[in-house]
Specification:
By secondary structure, this protein is of the alpha/beta class. The chain folds into two domains: about 90 residues, no CATH class; about 170 residues, 3-Layer(aba) Sandwich (Rossmann fold). It is built from seven helices and 15 strands. A seven-stranded mixed sheet has the order 10-9-8-11-12-15-14, sandwiched between helices. Strands 4-5-6-13 form a four-stranded antiparallel sheet, with no helix packed on it. A hairpin with a 5-residue loop joins strand 5 and strand 6. The protein is globular, with a radius of gyration of 18 Å.
């Protein structure tokens, strides 16, 4: 067993060495402009090897390239995956992301999140996108929220359903329930979306007028990130499923652009070097 490089307290095995690819990896769909501000001025920031990621498959190139927008400063990969590549990656799940995994330990971490969110909205439907082990939904239910999980991995959805929580295998943008949710959580999810603006627009549409959004993700612009970089030990550059690295400043401006008002900031207990934001639907 080796330590999960992303988590503060969870470990899992990487498994056997991946076999050599029998066919050439499929190229990414290139971003023609910054996926946040649509500016066309981009520069290569760095490259990284993603082949040590636990979900790596040879259908993906080992080397990933990170770009930086010359206008808004956002950092993102040079492209995103074809649907068939995403399907290949989603065919497996990290053990610590399976519903029910580490439930007692994760319950305490999730309780801190739900307690903070409940200061701004006390009840209603809680939609968790990319729910992973389901801990946030289990805990939100204890507070009296009606939980609903959304994920793109069919096996994960079925596993959560077996544990008694409503779950659907669908993309956030496809939900047609405007104004029906009091809380939407994107816990370490927004950086997985090729076009985060679409995800935030959907969340804004689905939230009720006084609803709140919970967002967590790695913080690209903090001392902890820079210390990991200095020691050549930053796992997020080689994070296979990530297309973005957000700074707090860029995330705040994006949320404002999409109709949200930030009301709370905290350091995440879920994963290393991560931040957590609570934002109210503002318009």
């Amino acid at each position: 067993m080796v330590n999960n490089p992303y988590s503060t307290n969870v470990s899992f095995g990487y498994g056997a060495v991946q076999p050599k690819a029998e066919v050439a990896p499929k190229p990414r769909i290139a971003f023609e402009a910054c996926p946040l501000c649509q500016a066309g001025k981009m520069a290569t920031l760095r490259t990284a090897d993603c082949s040590k990621h636990p979900l790596y498959r040879p259908v993906v190139a080992r080397l990933m390239t990170w770009m930086q927008c010359g206008d808004c400063g956002h950092v993102f990969t040079d492209g995103y995956f074809l649907p068939e590549v995403m399907s290949e990656i989603f065919s497996r799940t990290n053990p610590n992301q399976q519903p029910g995994a580490g439930f007692e330990q994760q319950r305490m971490i999730s309780a801190h999140i739900v307690e903070r969110v409940a200061r701004y909205v006390a009840d209603g439907r809680w939609l968790d996108v990319g729910f992973g082990n389901g801990s946030l939904l289990f805990t939100a239910e204890e507070w009296g929220f009606a939980p609903l999980g959304l994920d793109l991995r069919p096996a994960t959805v079925e596993a959560l359903q077996r544990l008694g929580i409503e779950a659907r295998c669908a993309d956030l943008a496809t939900l047609d329930e405007p104004g029906q949710f009091s809380v939407i959580s994107l816990a370490d999810v927004l950086e997985h979306m090729p076009f985060p603006c679409d995800g935030l627009a959907a969340a804004h549409r689905l939230l009720r007028a006084d609803g709140v959004l919970f967002v967590s993700m790695p913080n690209y612009d903090c001392a902890a990130w820079r210390l990991l970089d200095a020691g050549n030990a930053n796992p997020y550059w080689g994070e296979l499923e990530h297309f973005h690295n957000f700074s707090r400043q860029r995330l705040y401006s994006l949320l404002a652009e999409q109709g949200f008002e930030v009301v709370h900031y905290s350091v995440s207990e879920r994963y290393r070097v991560c931040m957590e934001i609570i934002a109210r639907r503002a318009a």
